[in-house]
Amino acid sequence: MLSYVLRRIALMIPTLFGIMLITFAIVQFAPGGPVERVLAQLQGQGDGALSRVTGGAGDLGGGGANRAGGETNAKYRGAQGLSPQFIAKLEQQFGFDKPAPERFAKMLWDYARFDFGRSYFRDVTVLQLIRERLPVSVSLGLWMTLLSYAISIPLGIRKAVKDGSRFDLWTSFVVIIGYAIPGFLFGLMLIILFSGGSFFQIFPLRGLTSEGWESFSLAQKIADYAWHMVLPLTALVIGAFATSTLLTKNSFLDEIRKQYVMTARMKGLSERRVLYGHVFRNAMLIVVAGFPGAFISAFFTGSLLIETIFSLDGLGLLSFQSIVGRDYPVVFATLYIFSLMGLAVNLLSDMIYVWIDPRIDFSARAT
Description:
Blueprint: H1 2-29, H2 34-43, H3 51-55, H4 84-94, H5 100-112, H6 126-161, H7 166-180, H8 183-194, H9 218-256, H10 259-266, H11 271-283, H12 285-289, H13 291-300, H14 304-309, H15 315-324, H16 328-356
Helix pairs in contact: 1-16, 6-9, 6-13, 6-16, 7-9, 8-9, 9-11, 13-16, 15-16
């Protein structure tokens, strides 16, 4: 097992390299970068978010960005009337004055030391941005995963025991309908119904805490946090448990039909003892071992639209805003962290398989 773990860890390096290389290459050909964004804003009315960027590149009224008698820089759209010196300073400030291979090599070296630099358009480090958004994503991902498993496992077991019954058919219909409804659409319905839309105003519309939360007692903090989490978690969980429910049901059905279950029943063991004493461990192998992967999936990708609808500043929304705003340090840093954690979780899932069922031996695998 140790050799397998070391081999998997060694394979993470070229995998991460490939992910970052492909993404970096795509970004080089994508239209509109941070320089173009600054230039577009300068040619228009500008905004406060760019003041920190342009402040280091020169004063628009001075020599760095003076109008140069109709001079244009054909390299960038929207650069008409801006001096080439100003454009060069912008490129230097963003690091685009160096060739792409050199920039990529420097990025890899910095990321290997977990040095992710600073955001282009926010006056903070990338790690600080991620740290500020982390509690929201952890809350959504963890509670969604726990609630979906708490619903799907008992429901899946019950469906397996009642396979083909009216209960099985009706619950399958409900599960499929819930899975078919997009989470963001269900979130909008919840807002309309329970958050001051057209009917009731029971739950808050945005955020995870109320104003003055720091001054609340511990019980008040817990209650306020739970009050804010009801609607976004409901919107996330409504379709999240469908796959794990059907997976649990099918796993139990496969085990129930095996010979050792028939033998246990012939020995006179109660149905509960057979189900939970013999079937449960084998049937839940694939479900339990997939828990880390389900959490990571919910943590990083499952809540983007929910975060947007309920105004929750999580990592999903941060990544989306950074891509749209061409804030490349944040884009690449979140991609690197997400990829690294995804690879680590895949390895953890394999180790959980072995822990649950020692008969599994990954060390015998060639790769």
